[in-house]
Design brief:
4-stranded antiparallel β-sheet; alpha+beta; 10 helices; 12% strand; 61% helix; 226 residues
């Protein structure tokens, strides 16, 4: 199964075997691909974390410091540090603008039913920005569990219910999608209005190049195993 992920400088597509990435550096699109290893996963998360604007990084550093201080001395906590977990759960809603555009480009590449190519860029730009398999679905499941329980459970218990909801959405998707359609419609609404933005040509071309590289490598692997 092909999966996509966006970050502040680009888009990547991967399966269990290989990861292909296209990212923008100084206005130029660079592509690279590697077999899926622990080193590659580390490389991926490094790019995600350090592609945020400086003020996001500073804020996250302060949050991490606050949680660490609260663990050392609970008396220093002004608000329950568990709220940081709620912030992490809802981070989709506060993606930086550039990341939202790359996210939108990733979705449009997935939505376009034809062959992904630079020649098809105008058609891909018109494709649906909502992706039925987007991780926003899991965010909605998390907050469904959290909001249904936060009124009568301690915060830690409510977060546990949120994680439980997330696990339901993750492992029971093929079943709950049939009976909980309203949650997926809510996810589609959030994707369209909050977690993505209409991409510019640069974002679309980056996503297309990433997908093309992934398809090329997968085809090479097929030929080798044939």
């Amino acid at each position: 199964m092909i999966m996509g992920m966006s970050f502040g400088r680009g888009v990547l597509f991967h399966d269990r075997n290989v990861l292909a990435c296209a990212e923008v550096k100084d206005g130029v699109i660079h592509t690279w691909a590697e077999k899926m290893t622990l080193k590659t996963i580390g490389k991926l998360w490094y790019r995600i974390f350090f592609s945020f604007p400086w003020y996001y990084q500073l804020f996250h550093l302060l949050l991490a410091g606050y949680v660490a201080a609260a663990l050392v001395n609970p008396g220093w906590a002004v608000v329950d540090p568990m709220w940081v977990a709620v912030y992490v759960g809802g981070f989709h809603f506060v993606f930086p603008k550039m990341m939202k555009k790359f996210h939108g480009a990733e979705h449009k590449v997935f939505s376009y039913p034809g062959k992904k190519s630079l020649a098809a860029l105008p058609q891909i730009a018109k494709a649906d920005i909502v992706n039925a398999g987007c991780s926003t679905n899991l965010v909605v499941w998390f907050f469904t569990g959290f909001l249904l329980s936060v009124w009568f459970l301690p915060l830690a218990g409510s977060i546990a219910c949120g994680v439980g909801g997330l696990l339901v959405g993750m492992f029971g998707d093929r079943y709950v999608r049939k009976y909980c359609g309203v949650l997926y419609k809510l996810s589609a609404f959030f994707q369209k209005h909050f977690t993505t933005k209409e991409p510019d040509r640069l974002h679309l071309e980056t996503a297309i190049r990433s997908y093309m590289l992934f398809e090329h490598i997968r085809e090479v692997e097929r030929q080798r195993s044939a």
